[in-house]
Design a protein that fits this description.
By secondary structure, this protein is an alpha+beta fold. Helices cover 15% and strands 26% of the residues. The chain has one domain: Eukaryotic RPB6 RNA polymerase subunit (Alpha-Beta Complex), CATH 3.90.940. It is globular, with a radius of gyration of 12 Å. The model has no long low-confidence stretch (mean pLDDT 90).
């Protein structure tokens, strides 16, 4: 991981469900990130996975398309 790259992780099913419930949204309402995004490197992602991105001052969620 590059030093300027934000930390991210794939949420498990329960965590993903909690995020959707917390914000009262559906999966299709999350911002999207490409399955081919270079930030993932060698890590395997699947379409529909929810990714948590940690930046210095906040947390963001994206759905893999």
């Amino acid at each position: 991981m590059h030093t300027l790259q934000h930390k991210y992780r794939k949420l498990d099913a329960k965590e993903a469900e909690n995020v959707l419930h917390k914000y009262n949204i559906g999966l299709s309402q999350l911002p999207k990130i490409s399955i081919n995004d270079s930030a993932f490197g060698d890590e395997k992602m699947s379409r529909g996975d929810i990714i948590e991105i940690n930046r210095e001052d906040s947390v963001y969620y994206r759905v893999v398309i």
